[in-house]
Every structure is written in C-alpha cells, then in structure tokens.
From TrEMBL:
UniProt name for this protein: Ribosome-recycling factor
Pfam families documented for this protein: RRF
Residue ranges the record marks as coiled coil: none
Gene3D superfamilies per record: 3.30.1360.40, Ribosome-recycling factor
Keyword Ion transport on entry: no
Top-level taxon in the UniProt lineage: Bacteria
Natural source organism: Elstera litoralis
Family: Belongs to the RRF family.
Keywords tagged on the record: Protein biosynthesis
Gene Ontology BP terms: cytoplasmic translational termination
Single Gene Ontology MF annotation: ribosomal large subunit binding
C-alpha cells in the first residue's frame, strides 16, 4: 500500500477546517453577526464584489446589522 503524501493530506484537512469555521460563523445564535453578510455579492464598477469590499458592516444592536457604503454610486446596488 502506498503511503499518503502528508503535505497534501494536511492541506486538504486545513481547507476542510477553514470551510467548517465559515459555516459555523453563519449559525444563528440570537445575536446578529457581520459574517452573515459575507456571501452577499453586489455589482460595483462593472463586476460582482463582496459586500464587505464596498462598505462597512457593523452590529449596533444584538438583532441589527447596518451597512455603511463608502461610495454613493454603489448605494443602489446594495439596497
């Protein structure tokens, strides 16, 4: 039986752990998390960009998220 390439196994396991961490961050715990909006993409400057790259996501209250857009031209796409 061939021995597995340990560096490849480590790389794949690290990738699986990173994916799990991202999934767990999206769990609803009764408190809003800015990470909930990470998968949201908006059209900006002719291409799709993550919401976090066109504005700031904050959590002012436990059940509220706010998005402050940096460029007034992208407000319509975020709405």
């Amino acid at each position: 039986m061939a021995t597995p390439d340990l560096s490849d196994v480590k790389r794949r396991m690290d990738s699986a752990v990173d994916t799990l961490k991202k999934e767990l961050n999206g769990l609803r715990t009764g408190r809003a998390s800015a990470n909930l909006l990470d998968p949201i993409m908006v059209e900006s400057y002719g291409s799709m960009m993550p919401l976090s790259q066109v504005g700031t996501v904050s959590v002012p209250e436990p059940r509220m998220l706010t998005v402050t857009v940096w460029d007034k031209g992208t407000v319509k796409a975020v709405e």
